Amino acid sequence: MAKAPTPRVIFVRHGQTEWSKSGQYTSITDLELTPFGVVQMRNTGKHLIGASPFQIVKPQNLKLVLTSPRTRAKQTVQLLLEGVDDLTRSKIPIEEENNLREWEYGDYEGLLTSQILDLRKQRGHTDDWNIWGYGCEGGEDYKQVTERVDKAIERIREVHAQAFKNNVACDVIVVAHGHILRCFAARWVDRPININPNLCWMLEE
Predict the structure, then answer these.
(1) Is 72 part of any known ligand binding site?
(2) Using alpha carbons only, how large is the chain's radius of gyration in Å?
(3) CATH code at 8-189
(4) Which residues are tagged catalytic?
(5) From CA 201, how far away is CA 203, in angstroms rounded?
(6) For the whole model, what pTM was predicted?
(7) What is the spatial distance between Cα 109 and Cα 116, in angstroms, rounded to a whole number?
(8) In whole angstroms, what is the distance from residue 173 CA to residue 164 CA?
(9) Is 201 known to sit in a ligand binding site?
(10) pLDDT digits (tens, 9 = 90+) for 36-65
């Protein structure tokens, strides 16, 4: 029997929303995709998933889709899978994973970075703030985010391990948000997230 391909995880950020367009920090605010965001994700699905040699994920190899519970992420999943036939699609498990929700911004929800810096200055903070090291007032810090991202990764590794044991192809797609996916990528390769996980740096190293 031929050896199955190495199990993979592919992560996709949700499409554009009004707040991602404006640069506002969006966590618990449950926005839908903009019309452009719908087009973005529909086109992403056409290029990502299908039987063509030029498409990265073959539908029959897709063993799990994990999505953030936010509407913008769940919409993205449906758009990504639009081109998959109904029978194949019915066999693909789609699970909401609360641990993949966006970093909770607390008092910074809906603000621009410049507004966050102004707010912190008004509150007497003199540090050079970034989310990775300092977290969010009224929201999460990097330790809390690390803990829940690691739980999501553990779920995926279990699926991969079973596929490896059974010698079957196994792709897992993760649909979530900008900050949480950077954390996910860092933790996947066992990097800390409190030093600004730059994806290019991680890949080059």
Answers:
(1) yes
(2) 18
(3) 3.40.50.1240
(4) 14, 102
(5) 6
(6) 0.93
(7) 9
(8) 17
(9) no
(10) 999 999 999 999 999 888 889 999 999 999
Residue found by looking up tokens 């719908």 in the block: 38
Ligand-binding site membership of 25 (annotated):
no
- The CA angle 148-183-166, to the nearest 5 degrees, is 70
Strand partners, 96: 67
Cross-strand partners of 115? none
Task: Quickly list DSSP for the chain.
Answer: -PPPPPPEEEEEE----HHHHHT---SSS-PPPPHHHHHHHHHHHHHHBSSSTTSSB-GGGEEEEEE-SSHHHHHHHHHHTTTS-HHHHHTS-EEE-GGGSPPP-GGGTT--HHHHHHHHHHTT--S---HHHH--TTS--HHHHHHHHHHHHHHHHHHHHHHHHHT---EEEEEE-HHHHHHHHHHHTT--STT---HHHHHH-
* Best CA proximity match to 56, nearest among 111, 120, 115, 5: 5
In contact, 94 and 77? CB cutoff 8 Å: yes
CA distance to 34, 74, 140, 167, per residue, from 25 (Å): 16, 19, 13, 42
Q: Is 134 annotated as a binding residue?
A: no
pLDDT per residue as tens digits for the range 121-175: 999 999 899 999 999 999 999 999 999 999 999 999 999 999 999 999 999 999 9
